[in-house]
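Collaborator request, handled under Task 6.
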Amino acid sequence: MRITTYVSVLLLPVLIVGCGNNRAAYKIPPVEPALVETPQNDRGMYLDLIKQMQTQGAYFASLAHIDAFRQRFGDIPELRILQADALRETGERSAATQQYRTLTKGPQAAQAWHGLGLIAAASNDAAGAQLALQNAVQIDPLNVAYLGDLGFALLQSGDVGKARAPLAKAAELAPGNARAVSNLALWALLDGRPEMAEAMIQRANLPQATRQEILRLASALRRPMAMGGEANNVPAALAAQQGSQAPALQPLPPRSMLDRFTPTTAQPQETVQ
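Structure tokens returned to the collaborator:
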């Protein structure tokens, strides 16, 4: 795929009149791109292009374009955070860490802390991951990705109780986000609530592959937690069909995302805060 990094202009053949024989000849203009009259707009388009490349996973190519952008327009914090993300995704963790740390005090602070948290998690530094991700959430409390990653990091460290709040926030902020719902379903399994997890999966209509991944993660995370009881039989519990009997009492309106997925009974359920 060929990517144009500047605003194209219409190239017309230039008519050149010969001096000797009065014969007209066409000369093709140079291939060098012409700069537009509004370089600020052109810069924004180029920056958006780099972001799109990273969204599509072309991180190595984005690094090359980041260098080209810097040569043409200079350096800006927004470009540096993109470079740090690309370095992290291409395995250059040390360089990415250094770049992120230079951005933890500016407008990209939340993104920088999030990146540092992901690097720490990939390096099996649970404490460092939680601290960095907590900083990211504190700066940008409505970011669903930050909340989800913080909750997942807490699950990885075995702190199921603390993981509930950020994961529930993410699911309520973005109820249509499959990743947010999957993380909350994973929490429900690890908290010994397979019926709740099954209700989440069914309501979100998650594909079978996602269901299996949730089960796999629950099994992997449950081992170091040494959890007992119903949670130790997660695959069988999740595969079982929910009871078909209607509740004797009309349930109260749900007060949170977790309440919506709590199986109703004849007695009022204890609200999960």
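The cover message to the collaborator said: "The beta strands are 14-17, 24-27. The two ends are 50 Å apart (CA to CA). Please let us know whether this matches your experimental observations."
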